[in-house]
Amino acid sequence: MTTLMAIGGAVDFEEPIIFKEFVKRAGGSKARIIILPQASGLKSTGQEYVKAFQELGVKTKPISLEFRERKLADKKNHLDALRRATGIFIAGGTQMRIMPIIGGTNFEEELLAAFRRGAVVAGTSAGTAVMSKVMIAYGKGGATPREGLARFSPGLGFTDKIIFDQHFRQRDRLGRLA
Questions:
Q1: Tens of pLDDT, residues 142-160
Q2: Of the CATH numbers 1.10.3720.10, 3.90.550.10, 3.40.50.2000, 3.40.50.880, which one belongs to the domain with range 4-133?
């Protein structure tokens, strides 16, 4: 069974209900979690998620794959980590940071293979947006739909049935969604 957990954004570490569910679906205390922090502009993002998942009882230390350059995507240890993963968490930030680094690489192929074999894939904000085959890459705010409000780009392709968007109320994106 394949599972995508699309989290809109502004996750709450104080009440980690969604993280608990992710850990449960990824194997509970035996989960092998990989964190992809590439969308974030903060260098500490990956390690913050490592800590959060450990605090939720994951015994095998989660691995944050910290590479920020395309040439580093296909390192053997990165591909091996994906092959062992039972859960993959894609951090938030800017979704357009992800595809230039991962798109079209062996890493992307292994990521999709992990999902097909049953690894749970979760993401927040940009990590949600990049899940679909076509993602909303850019856009403007506003309550009324109008031409040019949304710009599209290839995503990772975990699904081709829907397109994810996030932060509707906070960033006034209802027109973009429509």
A1: 565 556 666 778 999 999 9
A2: 3.40.50.880
